[in-house]
Amino acid sequence: MTETTFTPRVFSGIQPSGNLHLGNYLGALKRFAAAQNEGIESIYCMVDLHAITVWQDPADLRRATRELCAGFIASGLDPEKSILINQSQVPEHAQLAWIFNCVARMGWMQRMTQWKDKAGKNAQNASLGLFAYPSLMAADILIYHATHVPVGEDQKQHLELTRDIAAKFNHDYGVDFFPLTEPVIEGAATRVMSLRDGSKKMSKSDPSDASRINMTDDADTIAKKIRKAKTDPEPLPDNTDELDERPEARNLVNIYAALADMPVEQVIADHAGQNFATFKPSLADLAVAKLAPIAEEMSRLMGEQDEIDRILTRGAERARAITAPILRQTYDIVGLVPPVEL
Ligand code: AMP
Ligand code: TRP
């Protein structure tokens, strides 16, 4: 079998549940705009079908989906250059997910740490959708034959599973149809940690709002959360090795580096010997300078809901020009009899 070369194509998704936070921005959104500007065809998705694997209030889900779209655009995505979609508006995602449910094995899903974390001790009561979540994620990516997926560190295992599904499909059917997608986990902030606990990732599900900086927080709130962030009493060291034992200090330095587009080494060189009483206000100023214009643009766009809905409708139309033929070919490979013209 000859190796097929696939045209580079980027895909990524974010769940419209809860607030967008600094982890989403630095781990994902900020880097999406970078990929777009390199001129690679890119599709960015609000994964509403993933969101409902746990309970979502319908009105909140609608609002969060539109707000996420506003967040994508405010972070620099141009809906003309990139394709912005809402997952449920492109039915081929869910259709391919069913095929993948028949390719993936129960044991693969059981090993997913996100499943274990989210289902917890109450797995018997979790939704079947939550268990199958990674299969739908593989379909999101592979329905575009996407080759590169920019995400935060927490999604690495799901992307390995996506490769396993593609490889098993190709092997079982004796084809070279789905690409083995590359995760793109880069930058100083692939895992932004909670501001209250340096051992936990910053997350929208953390009950403490002080643990995260939301994209819609105002300048005062951002400054206050950074001032109150947990740290240790030592000043900043003059080399990065010494940060290894200091997770909270490392987190603030990483956030600074990612926001300033600077190597971590440079941040350390510039701030070595400073106490947090000095470093935190600099970080707060930087965070406000970078995030406030995004929050402002998001709130402006939220006032133009019809425009957002039009962008998503147009995105879905462009997306389906890619997904419909790939689904048709998949069905053909699997042996599903297609409809004929009557
Ligand atoms: P989610 O909000 O779980 O849908 O995640 C959307 C994107 O943000 C994914 O690419 C995640 O990997 C990324 N992400 C979420 N939380 C963090 C975090 N604390 N640090 C870095 N990236 C994150
Ligand atoms: N599982 C991802 C998250 O929670 C969201 C997601 C769904 C995704 N489908 C995707 C990310 C496809 C990248 C590619 O963060």
UniProtKB/TrEMBL annotation:
Where is L-tryptophan bound in this sequence?
140
**GO process annotations (BP):** tryptophanyl-tRNA aminoacylation
Locations listed in the record: Cytoplasm
Q: Does 4Fe-4S count among this protein's keywords?
A: no
Q: Name one GO molecular function term.
A: ATP binding
Q: Name one GO cellular component term.
A: cytosol
For this UniProt record, the keywords arranged alphabetically read as follows: Aminoacyl-tRNA synthetase, ATP-binding, Cytoplasm, Ligase, Nucleotide-binding, Protein biosynthesis
Indicate which residues form the motif 'HIGH' region: 16-24
Q: Where is this motif: 'KMSKS' region?
A: 201-205
Q: What reaction gets catalysed by this protein?
A: tRNA(Trp) + L-tryptophan + ATP = L-tryptophyl-tRNA(Trp) + AMP + diphosphate + H(+)
| Residues binding ATP, per UniProt | 15-17, 23-24, 152-154, 192, 201-205
Query: What Enzyme Commission number(s) does the record list for this chain?
Result: 6.1.1.2
Which family does the entry's similarity section mention? Belongs to the class-I aminoacyl-tRNA synthetase family.
| Role summary | Catalyzes the attachment of tryptophan to tRNA(Trp).
Q: How does it assemble?
A: Homodimer.
Q: Which HAMAP family match?
A: Trp_tRNA_synth_B
UniProt xrefs under PANTHER family:
TRYPTOPHAN--TRNA LIGASE, MITOCHONDRIAL
> What is the designated name of this protein?
Tryptophan--tRNA ligase
